[in-house]
Amino acid sequence: MKWLIALLTVMLIATQYRLWVGEGSLAEVSRLEREIAQQQQKNAALVAENRQLLQEVLNLKQGTQGIEARARHDLGMIREGETLFIFVDDKADSE
């Protein structure tokens, strides 16, 4: 009878070890859930960025306004007859 109790105790300890420490343990499940939540946040940010880039591509394909805005912003281009004013912030230079 003692050997049966000892065998059952060993089996109980073996199953508890896997539950708390081994593969598929509660700690690992919790860690994986946190990683999934972080990855879902990253995915949502990337989806938003993709939507914005797709909208920008469509604007560039559809007309000259998108191209003109891009050239003005990125390249500093101006139309004929326009005057470009650049304001320098002295506070930013002194810091």
Automatic annotation (TrEMBL):
Topological domains annotated Periplasmic: 22-95
Signal peptide annotation: none
Statement: the UniProt record of this protein carries the keyword Ligase: no
Keyword Cell division assigned: yes
Localization terms from the record: Cell inner membrane
Single GO BP term: cell division
Coiled coil: 29-56
HAMAP family: FtsB
Protein name per its UniProtKB record: Cell division protein FtsB
